[in-house]
Task: inverse folding
């Protein structure tokens, strides 16, 4: 049983999504009986985002948010929704919000990230992004059969929106600046297969281009691309990445550099104030690299570490093996660890056939990518987490 830190009677969590949910659960499971205040700017707290680009968009589930906490009453939380944090005063130890100051003994910053926009598409009717439940509803309403959907950015969210659009009968064009979809995240060998996968499901993949303008009489009709071509568009989804939601911390004294700068313990530069989830940047002991993770599993893992470090005397560094999953055209995509130049496809076939790619760096197994090969990938989990030698893996 962990020893709770003395003098910490009030925990404030800023952000009311996945990281916050896992943080408050962990706080109570540690035996913390003090006040827990959760501040969230959205009207709804604690709902899950992954279904938004999948089942919710396709329409296979009712358009209601998926709750992240089952027994919320038992957690005895003071949840303040539709309240925006606008600053943090380290000296007086208060979070400043649109509804007044909230004092804290310990705080967890869990404000996540917000989608990037493209200047050229800003304010154009028919151009959407996808982060919140409301975003998903707005997009779902526009995805009619035959609608001409253009997705700008062929990353995870872009790939999912393209797949969901096809499932709804939309004509889909995927516009990507890089040579291949997800190339940076998975390496070119795997990315080439993903490009074929998109095309196999009748998505028109346009790479090495971006959007430079729009055309339309009274409504969006076409997009102009950087190679001089013009494509039809009724609805456009911008999926060109996210930025950590740190603007509200300006002037607080908390160091920020593409995320809240954290120690290995996920503590910010203000003692007692921790960060976790999409907003946190720290040096991950697993690979020694300054990282910010934008994926579901890491958010939960970081939340647990941050809360333990904030509330107990037993501090531990946060070591994370990166992991994400995605779902495209009914196929399950999973990536564990990190990519490297040396890749071996252990099960090969056509692009839509299941395969496992293993990444080797410096004689070690450092990552794996699976298409519909969950079992094989999970069998490599331990080896990837300890960066096992390639020879031992082959044995
Ligand atoms: C559509 C979609 C699909 C996804 N699918 C997958 C998937 O398949 N696999 C995967 O691994 N990951 C997926 N992710 C990523 C995963 O959902 C995120 O990594 C996760 O939500 C991060 O949780 P978080 O709590 O750190 O941040 P967020 O979920 O971004 O939550 C932050 C919350 O803080 C609030 N907030 C921000 N600023 C303030 C402020 N100043 N005051 C008060 N509140 C504030 C925000 O409104 C938000 O509610 C998906 C994300 C999206 C958007």
Result:
């Amino acid at each position: 049983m962990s020893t709770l830190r003395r003098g910490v009677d009030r925990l404030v969590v800023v952000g009311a999504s996945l990281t916050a949910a896992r943080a408050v659960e962990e706080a109570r499971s540690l035996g913390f009986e003090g006040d827990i205040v959760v501040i969230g700017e959205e009207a709804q707290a604690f709902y899950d985002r992954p279904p938004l680009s999948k089942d919710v968009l396709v329409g296979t589930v009712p358009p209601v948010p998926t709750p992240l906490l089952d027994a919320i009453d038992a957690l005895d939380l003071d949840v303040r929704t539709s309240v925006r944090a606008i600053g943090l005063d380290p000296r007086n130890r208060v979070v400043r919000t649109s509804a007044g100051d909230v004092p804290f003994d310990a705080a967890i910053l869990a404000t996540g990230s917000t989608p990037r926009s493209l200047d050229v598409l800003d304010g154009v009717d028919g151009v959407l992004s996808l982060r919140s439940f409301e975003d998903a509803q707005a997009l779902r309403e526009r995805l009619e059969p035959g609608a001409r959907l253009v997705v700008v950015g062929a990353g995870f969210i872009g790939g999912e929106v393209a797949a969901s659009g096809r499932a709804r009968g939309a004509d889909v064009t995927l516009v990507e600046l890089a040579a291949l979809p997800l190339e940076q995240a998975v390496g070119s060998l795997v990315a080439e297969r993903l490009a074929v996968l998109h095309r196999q499901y009748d998505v028109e993949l346009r790479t090495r281009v971006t959007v430079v303008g729009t055309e339309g009489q009274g409504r969006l009709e076409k997009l102009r691309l950087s190679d001089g071509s013009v494509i039809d568009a009724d609805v456009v989804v911008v999926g060109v990445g996210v930025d950590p939601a740190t603007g509200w911390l300006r002037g607080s004294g908390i160091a920020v550099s593409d995320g809240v700068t954290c120690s290995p313990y996920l503590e910010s530069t203000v003692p007692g104030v921790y960060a976790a989830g999409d907003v946190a940047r720290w040096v991950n002991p697993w690979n020694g690299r300054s990282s910010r993770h934008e994926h579901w599993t890491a958010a939960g893992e970081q939340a647990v570490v941050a809360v333990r470090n904030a509330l107990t005397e037993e501090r531990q560094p946060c070591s994370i093996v990166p992991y994400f999953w995605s779902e495209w055209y009914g196929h399950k995509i999973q990536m564990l660890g990190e990519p490297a130049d040396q890749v071996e496809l252990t099960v090969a076939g056509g692009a839509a056939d299941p395969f496992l790619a293993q990444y080797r760096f410096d004689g070690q197994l450092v990552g794996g990518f699976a298409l519909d090969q969950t079992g094989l990938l999970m069998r490599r989990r331990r080896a990837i987490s300890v960066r096992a030698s390639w020879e031992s893996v082959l044995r």
User: Anything to note?
Assistant: The first strand starts at residue 10 and ends at 14. The CA atoms of residues 196 and 351 lie 6 Å apart. The pocket of flavin-adenine dinucleotide is lined by residues 14-20, 39-42, 49-50, 52-53, 84-85, 110-113, 130-131, 157, 245, 248, 277-278, 294-297, 299, 324-326 (CB under 6 Å). The chain has ten helices and 26 strands.
